[in-house]
Amino acid sequence: MGEPAIEVRGLRKSFGQKEAVAGIDLEIAAGSVAGLVGPNGAGKTTSLSMMTGLLRPDTGRVLVNGLDIWADPVAAKASIGVVPAEARLFERLSGEETLEYAGRLRGLPVAEARSRAAQLLDVLDLTADAKRLVADYSTGMRKKATLGCALIHNPSVLFLDEPLEGVDPISADMIRRLLTRFVASGSTVLFSSHVMELVEQICDHVSIIDKGKIVISGTTQEVRGSKTLQQAFVDLVGSRASDEEGLSWLGSSSS
Amino acid sequence: MARLLVQLKFQLLRNALRSSTPAKASFIVSTTFACLFGIGIFVILALLRGSSASVDLTTVILTLLALGWLILPIFAFGLDGTLDPATLALYPLRTRPLAVGLLAASATGAWPVANVIGLLGVTAGLAHGGLGLLVAVVAVVLQVLFCIALARFVTTSMARLLRSRRGKDLAAFLVIPIFALYEFVTQVVPRVAAEDKINAASFAGLDSWLRWFPPGLAAHAIQDASGGRFGTAVARLTLLAAIIVAVGWLWIRALSRALVTADTSTQSSQVRAGALPLGRYGLRGTVAARFWIYQRRDPTALVYWVMTAVIMVAVSISSIVGRQTHPGIVIASAVFGAGFVGYFHANSVGMTGSPFFVEAEAMTDRRSLQAYFSGQNVALSVVAVPMLIAICFGLAAAVRHPIEGVTATAVALAGLGAALGISNIVTVLLPYPMVKRAGSPLRQPAQGYTSYTLSGVGFCLLGVAVLASPVIVAGVLTTADQAAVRTPVLLLCAAAYGLALAWIGVRLAARAAEDRLPELCQIALQSSL
């Protein structure tokens, strides 16, 4: 294994009294699909924002392909693509214009940006809606358009926050295949999710994060052991709900 | 059902009092305003006692209040949780009790109560004698009922539309006539009134139309009863009640339809343009293309341009309609126009909102940030330059001093450069999140950032005035010179000066933004548009 594609050292971030990320270390090998899983509010989105240069960490370093994203943002940001949890798209551009804009912002020549946009729209099954305004897109369509924006400059590392939320099963399958193909060529994917089945299926590296700390990190096989990932996750993070004894009336629709 | 919904409304009001300090403050301010409004209307209506035009004026005031009820809910959609039938559609409710409940909930709250109190002013102003008083009270109740039923009917039948993107766009455009009307009323009416062009006769003319509308019926019923024509008063009130019943029936029909039909948000149209323009000009062209598209497709952007135009006209209006003209006023219009172009874009990061992340990911060094700001300025200039020139010459012609148009245009060009440069710097140094708050179709600064907005206005207007002053001086001093020489020299020099100012602004803004990009990004992400 050569130089890790993503290397995170001692990443911390507090918002007032609350420590959202309490010291994260992470190493993701190039050419792998890594999953960052954790319950709601564990610090996944905050960590990803700091790794992608959108949120200044209190302390810690983030290296992408050996380049410090906070010390040398020009070079580091050129090689990453980001899909945030909530689609952040220009509502008044059409899908086609959105992708072309993302490509041209990244310095692609106009013709290249246009042809890549068209191809991505085709693969993402958005060609029929290419001329509609993003404001009129559904959640899943926005997610797909965001993915297109993140891929158009052919990044070597892709960060995704909840990539399949709101995406229909057919599109989800397509995105899965797209990511697999992307990684097969040597690129790296880091994504956060709470859909354990997905993580289990496509990740070869899993990190579980809870209360701002990495609880366990390793290959998918190491993390889950003999159990399913779902079970391993619940065992590690701990079941939060008390036994539902107060709901005795629930489920008996006789009354 | 009615009790439950009224309780819900009280609960919402109580929660407003318990929530964060700014929300509490705005609630208290709103309630205070409601009280003052109620008392004010009461006093105005009461003071009409004995006036020869009292019934005419009462009719006009009642009609204006009804119009307020008609228009405000379109903006306040979402302000009142009970306004949107969709929030209640999930519950197994029958339409009739629901309708009564919603009416009762509408009548609960500071503003409806203030309305009733204010309208009771007619008992002092218009009514005479016992019968007159009785009819006045009934008329007030019917007038408020009419207003509520009308407001409910409008919001319910527009609920589908207002929930969709197009409807919200449409509501944004409604700001324009209201803003223009406000400027008209505050600028023109006092001047015209001072010149005695508004008098009792003009209200009588209005009244001859308005008396046949429901508010007019209420006012004239009181007048008739006070004058002893009890029969006609009852007839008018009966007609009014019948109209209320009809509106109520329409509303209930709209309600039962709205509960089961989908909103129109899934229907959408396509854009014609195939690709982004300005491909040849690199990052600057790319950013300019995006801003240019937004100037056309974003209703807020269009509203800002029209507001700028209205402000420019309003500044000069005294010389256009008044007796004494000050041709120099057109120069003030130019300063205000340029200043407001700057102010409206002085928070471009907050206004762009979360998509700014796409741009921030691609921008890293100072050079790309310069391209970003200059691209933005280019796109805005494409709209602003022709607009400012046209308005300056138009106003100069209106005050019958076309020569002032040249000076004003020169000032506008220099001022625009200054305004854009300042707006770039303010964008970086004083960014604040924008939110689309219930109650307004336009974006507003998030809670706690109002002082930023005020500083933005101050910086832009003062900065433009100061930086454009050399051009103003040069323009005024050379007015007598030969136009064929003066015009091109003045305009070219002013344009070059403006360009230089804008360029300095872009450079300063880019330098400041270089280290603050993540912070700008966080501000943008806090915007909810």
Describe what you observe in this structure.
The complex is a heterodimer of chains A (255) and B (529). Chain A is α/β, with parallel strands linked by helices and 255 residues long. Chain A has a domain at 1-79 and 157-166 and 187-238: Rossmann fold (3-Layer(aba) Sandwich). Chain A has helices at 44-51, 73-78, 95-105, 110-123, 139-151, 169-184, 196-202, 220-224, 229-237; strands spanning 4-15, 18-29, 33-37, 59-64, 67-68, 80-83, 157-161, 188-193, 205-210, 213-219. The longest helix of chain A has 16 residues, at 169-184. Chain B is mainly alpha-helical. In chain B, strands 1-2 form a two-stranded antiparallel sheet. In chain B, strand 1 and strand 2 form a beta hairpin. In chain B, helix 1 (2-18) crosses helix 2 (21-47) and helix 17 packs antiparallel against helix 20 (483-514). The longest helix of chain B has 35 residues, at 129-163. Chain B is globular and about 75 Å long. The mean pLDDT of chain B is 84.
Distance between the termini of chain A: 63 Å
Structural class of chain A: alpha/beta
List the helices and strands of chain A in order: EEEHEEHEHHHEHEHEEHH
Alpha plus pi helix count of chain A: 9
> Which sequence of strands runs across the widest sheet of chain A?
6-7-8-3-9-10
Biggest sheet details of chain B: 2 strands, antiparallel
Sequence of strands across the biggest β-sheet of chain B: 1-2
Rg of chain B? 27 Å
Helical content of chain B, roughly? over 70%
